[in-house]
Design a protein that fits this description.
EC 1.1.99.3, TAT_signal, two-stranded antiparallel ribbon, Gluconate 2-dehydrogenase gamma chain, 2 strands, mainly alpha, oxidoreductase, gluconate 2-dehydrogenase (acceptor) activity
């Protein structure tokens, strides 16, 4: 059977059950100081252009459309754009020690979503009206895989809203201000984030057999990325 959200043989994997049940922010079983994320405001002009070029192509256009549909502009509160949810997800995939299974599921979901959207409407997701987007997302949410995929993106929205800005989302603490939340201090800066701490680096060394090479967006060189994320 062709892979899709509606594959009857799909079962929620343990790593996803753990992520969706706890919804704890910024947790990982492995990390390394080589994985330092770079806040967008600190990038050079050329680096910003590279990131923006990536985010203005697929699969990021679809992911951005889904995130902004799940948390749209409104008079009631902040939006996915306000909390830089798409950039936070980009950082999660490209800079943080995120499990390859999680990354693959995010990307596969984009393909499955667009395939279903084209089958139902003859259009890809980003070309749909807000009403049609809502209908398509409600359709896929009735499947186990679709519900998992949407729930995972909602979890990432929460993270982007609540995380310290050094992780890529929540610029200037906009999420905290909206929630009237006082964050703990001191806040982590680049070089002090959870995956850069010495204990994490030691864990990464002992788990080296689980480390795979991945592309460094800014340097164009292979780097390491953890494959285990709790």
């Amino acid at each position: 059977m062709k892979e899709s959200f509606f594959n009857k043989h799909y079962n929620t994997p343990k790593w996803l059950k753990d992520k969706l049940s706890r919804r704890q922010l910024l947790k990982s079983a492995a990390g390394t100081s080589a994985l330092a994320a770079i806040p967008f405001s600190s990038l050079t002009f050329a680096q910003k252009e590279d990131v923006e070029s990536t985010l203005n192509a697929e699969p990021w256009l679809t992911l951005n459309a889904v995130l902004n549909h799940l948390l749209p502009n409104s008079e009631q509160g902040i939006s996915a754009t306000d909390i830089k949810a798409t950039y936070y997800l980009y950082q999660l995939i490209h800079q943080q020690p995120t499990a390859t299974d999680e990354i693959n599921f995010i990307y596969k979901g984009v393909g499955w979503l667009n395939s279903y959207s084209q089958k139902k409407t003859d259009k890809v997701f980003i070309a749909l009206t807000p009403t049609d987007k809502e209908e398509v997302l409600r359709d896929i949410s009735r499947s186990t895989a679709g519900d998992n995929w949407i729930s995972m993106l909602i979890s990432n929205l929460y993270e982007a809203m609540l995380t310290p800005p050094s992780y890529g989302g929540n610029p200037n603490g906009i999420g905290w201000k909206w929630l009237e939340h006082q964050a703990g201090f001191p806040l982590p800066e680049a070089g002090e984030r959870y995956f850069e701490l010495p204990q994490r680096s030691k864990q990464a060394a002992t788990a080296s057999k689980h480390i795979i090479p991945t592309r460094n967006t800014f340097a164009g060189k292979p780097r390491t990325q953890g494959t285990t994320k709790a």
